[in-house]
Amino acid sequence: MKFKLDPIKRFALFLSVFAAVALGYNWGSASVLHLGLTLGFGLLLYAFYTRFSSKRKNIWDTVVTCLLIFLVLHPAGGLPALVYPVLATVTAITLKFFVEWKNSPIINPAATGILISAGLGAIVGWDLPFASWWGASFWVVNFWGVELPISLLLMAVWIFGGFAVWRKFPLVVSFLAVFAVLHYLRTDAEALRFTFMDSFIYFFACIMLAEPKTSPFLPWKQVAYGAMAAGIFGIFAQFSLPYPELFALIGANLVSAGFKWEPAFKQTATT
């Protein structure tokens, strides 16, 4: 029998390896606890919702969401740093189960969970959670005089391996092209070179932004989606607003949702 993983299991496996390498390089009690809070609470909530509600979801989707929160939120000590991963995870898994359109999430649950947890923290007067994307870029080594993160090599494996099945290359190219222009106009050539030799921008584009359930399928819609995300990212960065990546992602998700809802709106208007 030929062993073959379906796309979601392949994605979960890649993120598991990615998270394991990130954790190994940044090993410490805070990082281990951070993983326990995100993945542990996510799986517990998955079991609870599956047991006591009529909703049935793929457990690998839950693993993916938890690992994304783990890799984006910075592991740290102190009460807020322990509460934020739990809040983000509980919010994200709840959204995955109960807020959807045609069995798909409307906006990225991991990003939404982090932003909602930040909002709740601001209400009670805590410092905002640090979305450092620590797990998206790590372990910088020197390759023939060029410093590159090991995480960039892992991203290359994903981009030229598992990512192809998503058919989202127009989206990624559109985002990176518009982002490069805006980033260059806002900074300089050296900052642009540094950004594109780091794995973060590819992690964001090829894992978060191009996630198949919250991004469009048709190529021209992908181009519009990617350009919109880059524009929002650039505006937030220009004015030093918090969480530019996450708001860019949510904004683009809403654009994609509009593409999905448009036929339903037209049908309603003509009946």
List keywords for this structure.
68% helix; two-stranded antiparallel sheet; globular; mainly alpha
Write a structural description.
By secondary structure, this protein is mainly alpha-helical. The protein has eleven helices and four strands; from the N terminus they run H-H-H-H-E-E-H-E-E-H-H-H-H-H-H. The strands form two sheets. The chain has a two-stranded antiparallel sheet. Helix 1 packs parallel to helix 3. The chain is globular and about 55 Å long. Residues 264-271 have low confidence and may be disordered.
Low-confidence blocks of residues: 264-271
The secondary-structure element order is HHHHEEHEEHHHHHH
Report the average pLDDT across residues.
91
Largest pleated sheet: 2 strands, antiparallel
The strand order across the widest sheet is: 1-2
Helix content: 55-70%
Computed CA radius of gyration, to the nearest angstrom:
19 Å
Shape: globular
Counting helices, strands and paired strands, the structural category is: mainly alpha
Our measurement of the CA-to-CA distance between the termini, rounded to an integer number of angstroms, reads 52 Å
* Total E-strand runs: 4
Q: How many alpha or pi helices?
A: 11
Strand content: under 5%
